[in-house]
Amino acid sequence: MHSPLKTRILVIAGLLTIVGVVTVLAQGAPPVVGPAVNPAAVQKAAGTPPPANATKAKSIGGTSVKASTANSAADDDSFWTQSIDIDGDGDVEATNLVWDDEDKVLFSYSDGAFTCAGGGTGTGELLIATYAAGNTGKRPAGSGFWVASLDEGECAAQAAGLWGCRFNPAGKSTACGVVSIDDKADDIVIVTAKK
Question: Fewer CB within 10 Å of terminal CB in the chain, N or C?
């Protein structure tokens, strides 16, 4: 049997726990940083042969977001443009694609307006990379990463720079944060993880 003092302490502790839970629920989840992305649109194209009219390129991207696909000075890869809803907003965009045939990675790039994952709109560069079956990094086919250039405050970014996420074959983000692109590994390095 509890003494009156122990009973009061237990009741107070229970009330504090309830208040803490209500406070966390009232604050909500932290905002999702970055654009809404549509890995499924790129995943469908990964591993399919480039079109006959493809040209050659050694890299993909723009000013802020750029990835090299060349494994040597003489290496080049297939480049073409295709209409894809890369950002998941329901509208197709002219999207540049590069198929890295040695590493078996499909890179897609678009520059312009996009819908933010947490609502609102942003403008910038967006790169999505999807690993195909047999990729040299031995990553699951259909998994990959995305990188976007964001201004401070745009799409909930706390600072201007490159933001990105890795995603699994189902297209679900597995790790996100401030990133840099690692051309040699066909991957991103998460510099500052988002909590």
Answer: N
Do 106 and 22 belong to one domain? Answer: no
Q: Which domain holds residue 3?
A: 1-30
Cα–Cα distance measured from residue 21 to residue 26, given in angstroms and rounded to the nearest whole number: 9
Going through 32-143 in order, the beta strands assigned E by DSSP cover: 55-57, 59-61, 66-68, 77-84, 93-100, 105-115, 121-131
Q: pLDDT at residue 39 above 90?
A: no
pLDDT one-digit tens code per residue, 136-185: 999 999 999 999 999 999 999 989 999 999 999 999 999 999 999 999 99
Name the pTM for this structure. Answer: 0.82
Are residues 166 and 117 both part of a single domain? yes
